[in-house]
Structure formats: structure tokens, C-alpha cells
Protein 1
Amino acid sequence: MGENIIEVRNVSKFYGSVLGLNEITVDFGKGITGILGPNGAGKSTLIKIIMGQIKPNMGKVTVMGEKVWNNPKVNRMLGYCPEQETFYDRMSGLEFVTYCTRLNGYSRKEAMKMAKEVIATVDLAKDMNRTISGYSKGMKQRIKIAQSLVHDPDILVMDEPLAGTDPVGRIQIMNLMYKLRDQGKHILISSHILHEVERMTENIVLINKGKLLAQGNLHEIRDSMDRFPLTVRVTCEKRKKLASILSGMENVISISYEGGSNVLLVRTGDPNMFYEGFQEIVLKEGIRIVSIDCPDDNLDAIFKYLVD
Amino acid sequence: MKKKGYSYMEGMPNRASAVIEFTVRRILLSRSTVLAILILLIPTFIALYIVYDTPDDAQWLEAFSDFTLLFYLQFFVILYCLIYGSNQVHEEVDKRTITYLTTRGMKRGEILIYKYIGMVISVYLMLSLTIVIMYLVLGLMAPVTEILSSLDVLANVLFITFLGTMVYGAMFVMLGTLIRWPLMVGLLYTFIWEMIGSTFLGNIRQVTVMYYLRSIMYWEVGVGEIITFKEMLSTSFSIFFLLFLTGIFLLIGLISIRRKDLN
């Protein structure tokens, strides 16, 4: 087995006549990987296929080289935090996590001990004896995460784990993800909120309408999109002079000023060519550049471009 | 990959006890259980009224046998198995809690079998408890020696009730994995096929589960001849056939749950 933790090959899934996934082939490597796409893109379908909950109509999925369908060995390697907020009525947080742990084959005593430990990890120890129906949305999210972690799986699959959490809860969950990553866990996180994932990882899989749009490192994806217009923000002296010279470059689409500062916003159709030419011009003209950055080089911009 | 926790086989007893215990607690500790038990006690009250209205020492055992056949075997066993059996997998799918079962290192077939066992235990506990109550209440009018000497009748009734719970339970658990509206289909099956079919139709009654249960009841408890049974099957054949049916129902359920999308 190579570097891939999960391999998805030509997977399609139909719901009656509706196509949920359309011949998706994607690899998930080590560390944190974000599965991104708008609502209804097929993220949850892909995750449920990886978890062995639903069977693809075509294609194959393997986790650590093992087939996933009805394979307990794979399930024991995986921890799953589902998107839906469903729990058993009248169960406390502790009872719920203990029950889930027992389903992994642990005795009642062991399960109870493990459940208490993991509940403390997600900072719910004080509330573990309360019924889940009385929990806030963020607490419910954390108890779901607890049940996914309790059997110490190597791979965590989190379907919208940050949904419904407040800013503090969000940071707590993100910090937990970093901690788990540092412990050597491999984590798949789905989200439709792009900046959340961007803060956690640069490894992304973009899905829309059941199709794979892109996968890999965020910046590599960005670089591979030659025709994707990029905005470059240049803070410099002599901005009018620089603007006038840059306007003559073939790959520059537009130039604008940002506020009353010395900032130029240059929109280019070919970032690589632009950077080469820009360097030459700056050196030749002796224009001092204070800073240069790309506000477009983020997930939101890439995603918007790919989806549109 | 380093080994964590128990192997699949080592963890099986713990998984089984978790699901069975959970199922039993959910059925027996639900708010509707008190009502379910009160309904099961209705035949006891009716029998009491009839027996005490016309006191006769010899009547109580006959009343007990007749009432267990009429109410329990022909009605409550089927109805309770239908309500609790068809719901087992279906409710978890409906409420989407099945996710917690299917993603934890347990084969899908295990889920079905453990839930089935939990359901049979719970339903049988409710049925047998109220049958014993009926036996004791009706026996109050007879000498203690007679109550004790007739315990074999009670044992046979309890055994037949267990067989009925087992086979109908398997049938309705299977139905719960196969179709979207198991309760509706189950009700149609119960009232049209089992109740009417087993009583009035000619040889078709041999295709009902009830026929085999009534055969055992006829030979072992001595009731049921009032309905025109020309050829009663032997007890051993009937038991064998009911066990065979249970196996077939569970097998179909296992195949169905193994292939189904559960999320």
C-alpha cells in the first residue's frame, strides 16, 4: 500500500434516477483532508460510501487496502461523526458514548471508562450525565465527535463537524483536530464552509453535482488553473508609474487602486507570466515594493471559479 | 496496522450483550409497556368473570387453555411480534440511528440477530408473565394440589407461546428489513392470512404459521379441536417446521440487511 489511506475508484451512486456521485476517482492521503462542496454536492454520499453505509452502483472503495462493504475490520479503523443530529431518546451523553463503545466489542466496564475519558477530551465531562436532548447544538456536535474517537481509530471521518457550533466551540473542535493529526490520525473533514477547512488543511477535494472538480494541495490546484484570473495586491511607491507600465503587459486584465493608499490591485489572466514580467519591470524601473500578496489565492475564490 | 481493542470474534459477546440489553430495555422500559401489559391482562379479567359467574372446580383449567389459544396464540403473539418485531431495524433506519450500529465494527447480520433476540426476550417476558398471572388467578378457585398437578399444561402453553414468539418475531423482523411499511403489510398479513386463512380456508391453512402452533396446542394442551382440524400434524413435525420457518425468515432478513443501504 502506498501513501493513500483511502482509495475511491470510479465510484457512481444513483438514488433512483438521481445521480448522487458520478464516476469519482479520488485518493485520500495522510493528515487532514477537506472534502468541500456546496450542499447537495455529494460529499455526504461519498462519506457514506467510504463508511460502508451505502453501496456504490459502480466502482470500488478501499480503506488501507481493504474493501469497505460489510467489513468490520475496516469499521474498527474508522471513527465516524455523522452529519445528522440523531440520538437515542432519553440517553445521557455518557450512556450514549458507552453504548457506542460496547458496539466496538468492549465490555461495559471498559466502555464506561473509555467513554468518560473521551468525553473529558471534548470538554463535556460536567454534562455527561445529562440527557442529550437537553444539550446545545455545539454540545451535541461534541458528543458525536466523542463517540467517533472513543475506540481510538486511525482514521476519522467527520461529516460537517463544525456545523452549528459557536466560535469558541469551533476553535475547540479545530484544536482537537490539530491534536489528533499530531497524534498521527488521518482525518477527512467535509464542509460547505470553505474558510473553516482552509484553516485546518491545504489538502482538499472539491466536489460539485456529484463530480470531482479538483483534488490536491490548495495552492497547487490554484497554480494548475492557468486561466483562472488572479488578483495581485501590490503595495509600492510610485503606484501611478507602476500602474502605467503594468497596463502595457499582455497578461494584465485590469488595474485599480485600493483606497487612498499605495496599493494597486492587478488582475491577471496568467499569473506565472505576470510574476516573471513584474519582477523584470520592478528591477528595471527601480520601483520599491513594500508588499505583494494574492487575495484570490484562497479556497473561496478557487471554489467559486470552479463551480461557476 | 497495530491491533487495537478486541478482535472481531473476541468482541462478539460484548456487542451481542450491548444490543440485546439495549433492545430489551427500550421495549420493556418504554412508556407504552404498561398499557401493553394491561391489554394482555384483559383475557384474565374475562375468564375470571366467566369462571366465577358459574363456579365449577373443573372449569378453570379448561378456561385457561381455551383463553390462551383464543387470545394469546391467535392474537396477542402475532400482534405483539408484529408491533415490536417489524419496528426493530425499521425504527433505527427511520430515526437514522442505524448509523451508530453500522459503522462500529459489527457485521450487519449481527445487528439483525441481536435485535431479534432482544425482541423475542422482551415480547416473551410480557406474554409469559401475563399467562402465568392468568393461570394463578383462575386457579384460585381450585385446590392448590390441582394447580400444582396442572403445571404441565402451563409449561406447554408457555412453550408454545415461545415457539410462536420465535417464528412470528423472525417473520416480522424480516419484514422490517424488506419493506418500507412493515406494520401495514404485517397487519394485512395478520388479519387476512393468519387469522382468517388458518380458520376458514381448506388446505390453504397449512401455509399459515398458526396451523402448526394449533397442532401442537391440540396434542399437548388438548384444545383446538372445536375448529374442524381433520388432520393434525404431530408435535415433533410442527416444532421442526416452525424452527425451519424461523431459520428461513432470519436468513431472508440477513440477506436483505446485508444488501441494503443503511444510513
Protein 2
Amino acid sequence: MMKSIWKAGPLLWLSALMIITALCLVFLYAPTERTMGDVQRIFYFHVSSAWVGFFAFFVTFFAGIAYLRTKKRLWDIVGHSSSEIGIVFTSMAVLTGSIWAKPTWNAWYPWEQEPRLILVSILLLIYFAYHMLRAFVRESEQRARFAAVYGIVAFVGVPLTFMSIRWWQSLHPVVFASKGSGLTPPMLWTFLFCLLSFTILYFVFLIQRCRLSILADQVEDLKRRVLHE
Amino acid sequence: MNTIRSALTIVWKDMITEWRTKEMFSSMFVFILLVIVIFKFSFDLRISNAALLVPGILWAALTFAGTLQLGRAASLEVEDAHVDGLLLAPVPRSAIYVGKALGNLVFMSITELIMLPIFSALFNLNLFQPLILLAIFLGTVGFASVGTLLSTMAAYSRAREVMLPVLLFPIVLPIVIAAVKLTAGVIDGGTWQELAVWVRFLIAFDIIFLAISLMTFRFVVEG
């Protein structure tokens, strides 16, 4: 019964197809940017990973609230899984960003100039702390409660950090202004397609990771039952 | 009304415990002296005007001392299950949180009052200015409010001494940034117009952290 709900199946194939299409779009369809050249092509996957990272942490926040309200083990699993995926995608955003920053700004990680880099470092630290907390609390019901509370506090704290850093360094270069993104229509379409493919990829990962946790729970349950007999 | 009275009773209980043992203040005093001396000499060797670093050193010292104090207060409560007595008392959970947070605020403020004259003397800089005191007060309110929540969680975990700073530091960062900027602004002789934004930030952060801790504390201690 559980298996039929938690199999990614068609979604998995869809996301594989979309990521391959996205790669083709990025390298074949999108035009080369005039000033930055080919290195700009990393932008499509960079922003998509960053978006999925933030979205995943939002899901952890939401799952935390849902867990505290319902006390259903499933919400704890969703929050935990989503935060893991969030760390992976945020790290990917950092890596791709560094590869882009080296030729463009001539530095791998110029975090004294770009507040978003500080924000991302703090974000990763907070969610590492989230996983440490989970690792260091033994009892599973208590672990779920603490993780839910920390997931909520963390998600509220992050925008505050961003605001304070923004005010602290009001001179940072704006890479993509909010008005008039400077993207031509083919670039914009490629970008939106990448965003969608990454979001679907996120859900595939989330379903697989949750399924893994549910199966691990079942194994644990079976083990206990065998030991009792 | 009942909530406030219960909270004040908890603060009073903690004060009496501290008055009888004098554990926290004696250790805090030595710790702060050490932190100041280490910072003073490690920077003095390289930089001629160490006063430039005062806002940073002040807040680093406050953060370390505050973390130690929060950790100590929480583990005293959780060790030997003292907290169960509190939880059995017929008071709302929010009263326990408010009492604990207020107690932490009072203890941290007293420590800071001991620390400031030493700081002023060693760095030859008058820190007793209304806006610096305001920055310290507002920063401590935010620190104590979210710190009370996280230190209770850390106290229940293994390796609690490591857990608390790992959980707390990334979360209180906005408060530390705003407080350092405000303190530095006052030392550099900034006008109220320039500094008001940081005061507003600190007040807003305090309210947000206080609200979120108040809402989630009961989930940490239940069960």
C-alpha cells in the first residue's frame, strides 16, 4: 500500500527527460552572453539550484509546523529529507557560483563584497546545526520535536540575517536587478525551463528520500518484532 | 497576571540559588577577564590602535560569556530532572519560558555591568554612553530570548557544551551584526539619524525572536 504512494515512477522519468532537455537548451538554444561569454551559461543551473535550496528549507519549515500540530511521524521524515536535499542544492549553488565568480569577479568566494555569499554560508551552517541536533538527540519523538522547532526558528532567522547584511553593505554590486533582468527571450525561456526541471527533480528526490526513511522505519520495526519473539 | 507572577517567582528562585552557591558569577568574572586579556594582547601585537576593534571584541566577549551562562542555567535545570518539578507546577508553559528568559536576561546584564568598567579601563575608552548601553540591553534581550529556547534543547541533547554554540551562533547573527554596528557607530561619533536604523532593527529582531521562542517553547519541554 505504502509502496504505491511513495514510488516516484513516472515523475522520475519526466525529470530525467526534462534535465536532458534543459542541458540541450542551455548549451544549444540559449545565445552566448555578450560581456561574460560562455561562462554565463552556468547561471541557468546556478539560480535553479539556489531556488531549490531555499524551497527545500521552506518545506522543512512547513513540515516543522505540520509536525508540531499533528505529531505525525511522516512530517518529521519530510522535514528531515527536505533539509538534506536543501543542503545538497545550496552547496551546488555555491560551487557553480564560485566557478562563475572566478572569471567574472576574479575571486572564488568574494564574500566581503557580496551579501548573498554570507547569507548562503550562514544558511549552510544553520542546516548543518539542524543535522547535528538530530544526530545528538537519541529519543526519536524528542528528536522530531526539537528538529521541528529548530527548523522553524532557523527559517525565521535567515531573512533577518539577510536584512542586516544588506544594510551593513549597501554598496554591493547588484548582479541581476529586479527590474529588467537583461535576459533576451530565449535566455528567459531556457531559465524558466531549468527552474521547472529542477523543481521537479527536487520532488523526485524528496519522494525517494522519504520512501527510504519509511522503509528504514519498517526494517527497524521488523527487527524489534523478531527480537521480541 | 498569574503568568507574570509565576514568571517572577521562577526568576526569584534562580536568584536565590545563585546567591547561595555564587557559582555562576565567580566563574563568569574570571572567564570575562580571560577573554578580554586574550583579545587585548592577541590584537595589540599587530594593530597599534586596539580601540578600533572594541565593538567586535566587546560583542565576541558578550556572546561567549552569554553562551556559557545560558548553557549553565539550562543544564542546572535539566540535570537531576529539576525541570520536571517546574513542569509539574500548575503554571502555564509560557510562564516558565518568560521566567527562564527573564532570569537569563538579569544574570547576563549583571555580568555585563561587571565587564564594562574593565573593558573601558583596559581599552581606555568610555563605554558608559546611553546608546552603547541601549545596544547592549537590546542585544542581550534578543540573545536571552532565543538563547533560552535553544539552550533548553541543547541541554536535553548529548554533547550539550558543543551543541549550544552550534545551534545558537548562526541564529543570533543578525542581532550581533546590528549591535556591533550600533556600538561602532556610537564610538565613531555617528548621529542619531545614522544610528536609528540599527536601534529599530534590534527592537524588531527582539520582538520576532521573543515571539517565535514563546510560541515554540512548550513543544521543547513537553513529552
